[in-house]
Amino acid sequence: MKFSEAFYTLNDGSKLPMIGFGTYHEEFGNNLEPIREAIDAGYRFFDTASLYETEKYLGTAIRESGIPREEFIVETKLWIDEMGREGVKKALERSLKRLQTDYVDIYMIHWPRETGEPEEAWKEKDLETYAAMEEAVEAGQVRRLGLSNFLPHHLDNILKNCRIKPVVDQLELHPGCSQEAAVAFCQANEVLPMAWSPLGRGRENAIIGNAILPQLAKKYGKSIQQINLRFLLQKGILPIPKASSKEHIKANLDVFDFELTQDEIWMLSAMPQNTWLGEHPDFFIPTKRSNPGNL
Ligand SMILES: NC(=O)c1ccc[n+]([C@@H]2O[C@H](COP(=O)([O-])OP(=O)(O)OC[C@H]3O[C@@H](n4cnc5c(N)ncnc54)[C@H](OP(=O)(O)O)[C@@H]3O)[C@@H](O)[C@H]2O)c1
Predict the structure, then answer these.
(1) Which residues, judged by CB distance below 6 Å to any ligand atom, belong to the binding site of ligand 1?
(2) N- or C-end of the chain: fewer Cβ atoms within 10 A?
(3) Cα 198 to ligand 1 centre (Å)
(4) Atom of ligand 1 nearest to the CA of 224
């Protein structure tokens, strides 16, 4: 199979390329080049967020590519200071403007639990936000809905109350951060798990320091990062690596000409779970921005 033929089928029957391109954050600055390079390399599925401040670069790169908008999958997220019924409407308008488009392919809640405690309050806020996003689907501004950083107890609240099922849940996933419970819950409910920081953000103490990965890289004639992406794909997970170098951008799609054995998948799955890079959704109250309307 080639990358251009590799798709996941979502629970609404639509298809998503098996690898997306992440756009968080600093390297992009006011630099369109990595996104342009990614489009040239063949990526058509792009992840951004209102928080990242890269929506405008993605919008410009897509518009200037000359490739029809409908050939791209554009995924963005609303931040916690944009939750709630009115918040969603305004956030979506701002994102559409920055993305220079009249629809978003996948719209996500970036983090659950905007209010922290008590349980009833965050559950209600998540549902109010999600219901407003469902209305945006019905209004034609959004094609599909997704979630990000939703663990089983957050996702279950949505699944039990939604009218339009989320198609994906974006979680921190890489060797050393397997989140088996969340992945199993997603897969049992036909919600595709998507891996953020699938390369462990290139940190020495994350995937790079693991002894198994260099051995597998040598065996298959691939880089550690390619082994890592292959591992996620064979677990039924969609990775969205970010890269700013042209070489990395291309290499991250070159993972369809080899297959890890089941033993190797188990070895990588069983790596010590000590490398959570992001924040835990139950213990982290993300910072609200002073004026999201200005972004
Ligand atoms: N939902 C959430 O809360 C959340 C949180 C974090 C991230 N995300 C999304 O997930 C995306 C990916 O995560 P991330 O950006 O944190 O980190 P990542 O994709 O795990 O790692 C990016 C780092 O890996 C390097 N790299 C990329 N390909 C490589 C290769 N083939 N060989 C060697 N090094 C390579 C990059 O270097 P160069 O740049 O030098 O190429 C960069 O330093 C983000 O961009 C964002 O879209 C979502």
Answers:
(1) 22-24, 27, 47, 148-149, 170, 196-202, 223, 225, 240-245, 248, 251-252, 278
(2) N
(3) 7
(4) 32
Pick the atom of ligand 1 nearest to 242's CA: 19
| Through-space distance between the first and last CA atoms of the chain, rounded to whole angstroms | 41
Mention every residue, 6+ apart, whose C-beta is less than 8 A from residue 247: none
The CATH number given to whatever domain includes residue 160 is 3.20.20.100
Q: 128-162 pLDDT, tens per residue?
A: 999 999 999 999 999 999 999 999 999 999 999 99
In this predicted model, what pLDDT tens digit does every residue of 234-247 receive, in sequence order? 999 999 999 999 99
Q: Give residue 94 CA to ligand 1 midpoint distance, Å.
A: 25
pTM over 0.90: yes
Is 57 among the catalytic positions?
no
Range of the domain at 282: 3-294
Q: 């939703």: which residue's tokens?
A: 150
Give CA–CA dist 147/110, Å, rounded.
7
CB 11 within 8 A of CB 266: no
